[in-house]
Amino acid sequence: MAVSVPEYTCHTLPGTKPILNVTDLKSPLKLSKSLLRDPDALMMFAASRVEAALQCERINTTRPDLPSLEAFIKLMTIRTKLSLPTIMVSLIYVERLNKSLPPSARGDFETPYKIFLAAVLSASKFLNDRPIENCKMASLCGGYFTLYEINEMERCFLSLINYQLFVDSEDVRNFLNENRNLLQAGLYPEGW
User: Fold this and answer.
1) pLDDT confidence bin for 5, thresholds 50/70/90
2) In angstroms, rounded to a whole number, what is the distance separating the alpha carbons of residues 96 and 101?
C-alpha cells in the first residue's frame, strides 16, 4: 500500500514568515522517506495518538459496522489521498484537543473516529488551497458518518481546540520531538 504525498506550495503574505513548508517536514528529520517506507507504522502511530486524546468506550454497541480505528484511518487516508503534512498537522490538532479537555472527559466508542475526521478536515482546510470538503468526506466515509454528523464533529472539534489552527515548522518539530520514542520504535527502526 502506498500513501500519496503531493507537493504543496505555501503562500505567505509579504513581511510574514512562512507558516509551514513541506520541506520543513521532509529535510530536517527525513520524514517522507521513512514514513512512506512503512505507511502501516504511520497509521498505527496516528491511531495511537487519536486513541490517547480521550478515554472512550472500548465496546462497540452502537455501530457494529465500524472497522478498527487503525483500519478506518488507513481507509480514509487512502480514500482522501492525505499528504504527510496533512496527517502531521492533524495529529498536532489532536494533541491540542487532548490538552484542552478536562481529565474527566469521556467519549463514546466512535468518538476517536470523529476526532480523526474532524482533525483531517481542519488540517486540510488550513493547509490546502483545495481542501477536502465536508460533503466529499461524507461520501468517502462509505456511509459510516452522514454529512450532518461530519459538520457537527468539525464544529465541535474546532470549538474544543479554540479555533487554534495555526501550525508552523516549530510546532511540527516540537510534536516530533515529544513523540520521538514512539516514532523511533514504529517508524525509524534504523534510528535517526
Assistant:
1) very low
2) 9
Average pLDDT over residues 85-104: 92
| 61 φ/ψ angles, rounded to the nearest 5 degrees | -105, -15
Backbone angles phi, psi at 106, to 5 degrees: -135, 155
Evaluate if pTM is beyond 0.85.
Answer: no
Residue 96, C-beta contacts closer than 8 angstroms, at least 6 positions apart: 161, 164
The answer to whether residues 108 and 128 touch, using CB atoms and an 8 Å cutoff, is: no
What HEC string does 93-156 produce? HHHHHHHHCCCCCEECCCHHHHHHHHHHHHHHHHHCCCCCCHHHHHHHCCCCCCHHHHHHHHHH
Residue 133, CB-side half-sphere exposure with 13 Å CA sphere: 4
- What distance in Å separates the CA atoms of residue 165 and residue 76, rounded to the nearest whole number? 21
Phi/psi at 148 (nearest 5 deg)?
Answer: -60, -45
Angle at 155 between CA 150 and CA 159, to 5 degrees: 145
CA 115 to chain centre: 9
pLDDT in tens, 138-168: 999 888 999 999 999 999 999 999 999 999 8
DSSP string computed for 38-64: -HHHHHHHHHHHHHHTSEE-SS-SS-T
The predicted-structure confidence for 60-93, as pLDDT tens digits, reads as follows 888 888 899 999 999 999 899 888 889 989 999 9
Phi/psi region, residue 163 (left: phi>0; alpha: psi -120 to 50; beta: rest), is left
